[in-house]
């Protein structure tokens, strides 16, 4: 019913040694899976604005011996809010965060700023409200709206993928 982090991460084309940022990491379902995938030679930056969620994620990463996962208390909606350098990562993952923000365009620009040339943004979000299972109907960002936002931010649509029964998946590239 919901998006499956393990299945979705398996479809992202991540390889050992990659550097990845997880925008709005929450409890870290995607971040933990990506840290396992990129391995000890890679790095995952889990960026979250809620300190309690970051503390929980840091404890979980430590218990799983995932030393390549770094938690960052940051605001992905603001320029420089990730606290990462320009062109620091190969992939930015945004799973179930676009519907939560009014600063969608700013978030897309921050992703573009930290992406290396040729890097990808992987967007996974709710395709509907589904009678209240997902976000409120007025919060849902359609696939077409998401494409428009990221195109305006200067990112090109590379692919679409199935991200679960109630979600869509889009991959944008920084050229």
Give an overview of the whole structure.
With 175 residues, the chain is an alpha/beta fold. The chain has one domain (5-173): Rossmann fold (3-Layer(aba) Sandwich). It is built from five helices and seven strands. The chain has helices spanning 5-10, 29-38, 51-63, 104-114, 143-152; strands at 19-23, 43-48, 69-73, 89-95, 115-126, 156-162, 167-173. Strands 3-2-1-4-5-7-6 form a seven-stranded mixed beta sheet.
List keywords for this structure.
175 residues, alpha/beta, Rossmann fold, 7-stranded mixed beta sheet, globular
Tell me the layout of helices and strands:
Blueprint: H1 5-10, E1 19-23, H2 29-38, E2 43-48, H3 51-63, E3 69-73, E4 89-95, H4 104-114, E5 115-126, H5 143-152, E6 156-162, E7 167-173
Parallel strand pairs: 1-2, 1-4, 2-3, 4-5
Antiparallel strand pairs: 5-7, 6-7
Q: Report, as a whole number of angstroms, the end-to-end distance.
A: 34 Å
Radius of gyration: 15 Å
Percent helix: 25-40%
Q: List the uncertain runs.
A: none
- Order of H and E elements: HEHEHEEHEHEE
Name the CATH architecture: 3-Layer(aba) Sandwich
Mean pLDDT: 94
Strand content: 25-35%
What would you give as the CATH superfamily? Vaccinia Virus protein VP39
CATH fold-level assignment: Rossmann fold
What's the overall geometry? Answer: globular
- Helix count, per DSSP? 5
Strand order of the largest sheet: 3-2-1-4-5-7-6
How does the major sheet shape up? 7 strands, mixed
How many separate domains make up the residues?
1
* Overall number of strands: 7
């Amino acid at each position: 019913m919901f998006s499956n982090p393990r299945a979705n991460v398996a479809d992202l084309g991540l390889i050992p040694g990659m550097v990845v940022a997880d925008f709005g990491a929450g409890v870290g379902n995607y971040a933990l899976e990506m840290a396992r995938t990129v391995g000890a030679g890679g790095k995952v930056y889990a960026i979250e604005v809620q300190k309690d969620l970051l503390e929980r994620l840091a404890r979980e990463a430590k218990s799983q011996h995932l030393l390549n996962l770094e938690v960052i208390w940051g605001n992905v909606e603001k320029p420089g809010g990730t606290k990462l350098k320009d062109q620091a990562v190969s992939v930015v993952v945004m799973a179930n965060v676009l519907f939560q923000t009014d600063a969608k365009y700013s978030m897309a620009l921050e992703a573009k700023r930290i992406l290396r040339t040729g890097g990808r943004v992987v967007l996974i979000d709710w395709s509907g409200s589904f009678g209240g299972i997902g976000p409120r109907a007025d919060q849902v960002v359609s696939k077409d709206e998401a494409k428009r936002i990221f195109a305006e931010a200067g990112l090109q649509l590379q692919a679409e993928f199935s991200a679960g029964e109630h979600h869509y998946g889009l991959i944008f590239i920084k050229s």
